[in-house]
Fold:
Amino acid sequence: MTLPKLAASALLILVVIAAVTHWRASAREATANAEFPPDGQFVTIEGHRIHYVMRGSGPDLVLIHGASGSLRDFTFALVDRLAQDYRVIAFDRPGLGHSDPIPDTSLAAQARVLKAAAAALGAPRPIVLGQSYGGAVALAWALSGGPQALVLVSAPSLPWPGALDIWYRATASLPGQTVLIPLASAFVPQSYVTNAVNAVFTPDPVPSGYDAWLGTELTLRRASLATNAAQVNALRDELVAMEQRYASLTLPIELIHGTEDTIVPLAIHSGPLAARLRNAHLTTISGAGHMPHHVRADMVIAAIARAALR
Structure:
């Protein structure tokens, strides 16, 4: 076969792969949107719709979810418990769940939009709880002023040694984004997703029914994967800049962290942060992993109550 014919054949194969990938990803996205539609309402900020669930009455409490997630992580069980004592507002972060993406994916931009959304809903000075990556957004919110108190659950707060895992390193580049994100959206099997959820909870068990409720299919949409990758890839550099300003934080801060958290290690994040800030109170949960708001919910709820009293 001549070189031109080889090139034409290779091009044809690439076109077919791209077409099949697009079709498969589009079909999975349509199924995800149908099976997990918005279960809350929308508020428009800076021209972008932000999805939220609001329940209960009492002091205002905002919940900010972590990476690769949505507010469904909180509505699985925690929101209903908290709504007995608080007016709870759980947001989908911009670009995830059913919230529109925003041009700037930084922590500061997300915090600005969520702060404005909370104010538009009548909560200009809430207690803000952030879990995992959401805790970094909560810290950025506090640095801009507004929250009465912070509750940071398994939250990254300081720069860490080493590199992110291979997925994030690969999707940091334009070629990686262009090729890997559509392929992942189209072809990642459910078994891989299940294993990833199990790894996030380790060494704790995944609560019964959590997998089915969470709606990981929403995270596997191409736009959501791209947004999440951009946010996580920028996180370390943003924390380097933010940590220089932590001394200015005077509001009450409750930190909750499991001793066995391998996703966001206690010894790198909440432990050193608590030692730096006189207004921070650290609760360590022996034997717990990255998701104490599910497996040690009573301790997280008690920390929220302490923040409200402080």
Remarks:
- The mean pLDDT is 94.
